[in-house]
Amino acid sequence: MSTANLARPQNPSGLYNFDRTFTQGPNPLTASNSAGYGLATLLLGAPTGGSFGLSPQIALSNKSYDAYLQDDWKIRRNFTLNLGVRWDYQTPWTERYDRLGFFDPSAKDPLTGRLGVLRFVGKDGAPRYQTDPQKTNFAPRLGLEWQFAKDTVFRSAYGLFYFPGSGRIGASPNGLGEGFITSTPVYLGQPPAAPNTPPLGASLADPFVTGLQIPPTTLVGSNLTTALRDWLTSFSQQWNASLQRTVFRKVLVEAAYVGNRGERLWSTRSFNAVRDSYLSLGSQLDDLVANPFYGIVTQGTLSAATVRRSQLLRPYPQYLKLTRFNDTVGDSIYHSLTLRTNFRRIHGVTLQGAYTISKAIDNAPEGFAGRSSIANPNNLRASRSLSDWDRPQFVVLTYIYELPLGKGKKWIGGRFTGAVLGNWQVSGISTFGKGMPIVITGPSNTRLPDVNATPMQLKSPILQSGQDLNNWFDKTAFTTAPAYSLGNDSRTEPNLRAPGINTFDLAMSRSQPIREKMRLKFRAEMFNAFNKPQFDAPNSGVTGVNFGKINSATGARVVQFALRLSY
């Protein structure tokens, strides 16, 4: 059973943003990453965004039930099967006082008469669970081991693994959605006809001109982060096959293939984005038109007499941005081949090396630490690309060398000198890897709510010569997408990579026996021993002054010493 008592007010004093939006130009229709200045916007006195949060303390709980069957079946002396199945069931979350909500696309909003509204658990016939239970998570497992020749073994396995997870509970105040938790966005008043322009008289003195959203509320007319009842459990299918052989008695070699297919992976995604087919409307998207919710919705953007046409093209126009947390729409595939060898203490040397070639593809960035973003939440196929963290080649070497010094060794073997000067050991880890894909970014001018554009790629960005830190790729290959278009670039660059990894971590240690049960151990460690810079990815904003340049690095050498007395 899991419980979580959360008391994390979100911006209880208000959060106010001042970016370049209101001071860029000269054309207000065109967004820019280089024009305008946030400090100038602050001096103007009108925040470009922000929010004010109200949230009670909530008490959450759920239960987990798990069962498994497993058996080893030795069919022959040299052939073994491992069979198993696991059942995982995690109940949806409940709250002690039913202070949870979910979005129901088929329910009619009583305020506006439109389909789609936030409902509350335990009310109006709704169950106490926030999402529908999923009790069919059966996960089969199969493995085999076959020693078909002397010193040679073939192994293979397949397994399906469910990841119920905690739903990021505690990661943010609205980890299970809003309704009893509210976050009122900054609203400065009726917007002018020109986009990217503050309303006349807008000021930080009154950033919420129509008041705050007081919980509990359905948040009609505002942004909403929520769950839908048809939440599915993420899972992955994993399979592998390896051939392992011992040669020369102390040398092991292995070739292994690994595959992994992730399905229903978490992705926080808007489900109220306007369809990209409306791009053909062009500048009409920004037209101010009569607001059908005027006089009905009393707070925020939809309380004004007119709204932009693009707002009314949303699937649920009575709401602004609708965000579904942990939307299980992510999909990934991974393949790798690893060649590994292990030398087991030959003349005091133990060595292990592994070389991996791999490829990872997905349609959404990793939920907790993604480097890219989904441009069009209505078309995840367009977001399918190399994974943010894909590294096609990776080499890891580990080594230990016991110096031939001391009692019983080749040199300094005297009883006294060996005890004082012997027992030294040198070890290390060397890591080499290709860089991760570069993510090119740029301003978006689609004018479609919640739909962004990728930059335009005009030609191959690969430099035929002259690559250096100031010119990592051909910067003329990219430009900002035109207004009312989606761009044509991929989420990550398939042919452009950041600098790779090249590190040597070394250690020297000595163990000194003092008495029968007392030992003193000294250890000196150097991380990135040769102080080789590990350069970061180049600046990737197409309108930035440092676009295509690498001007930062990590991995400075670190030296540490340790002394340990064991008794």
Description:
The chain is mainly β and 567 residues long. It has helices spanning 38-44, 415-421, and strands spanning 2-6, 15-17, 49-54, 58-62, 64-76, 79-90, 94-95, 101-108, 115-120, 138-149, 152-163, 182-185, 224-226, 234-247, 251-270, 288-290, 306-308, 322-346, 349-362, 385-386, 393-402, 424-433, 456-457, 478-479, 501-515, 518-527, 534-535, 553-554, 558-566. It has 2 helices and 29 strands. It has a 15-stranded mixed β-sheet that branches. Strand 14 (234-247) and strand 15 form a beta hairpin. The mean pLDDT is 90.
Assembly level: single chain
Determine the N-to-C terminus distance: 41 Å
Poorly predicted runs: none
Question: Could you describe the largest sheet, including whether it forms a barrel?
Answer: 15 strands, mixed
Write down the overall mean pLDDT. Answer: 90
Number of helices, counting only DSSP H or I runs of 4 residues or more: 2
Structural class: mainly beta
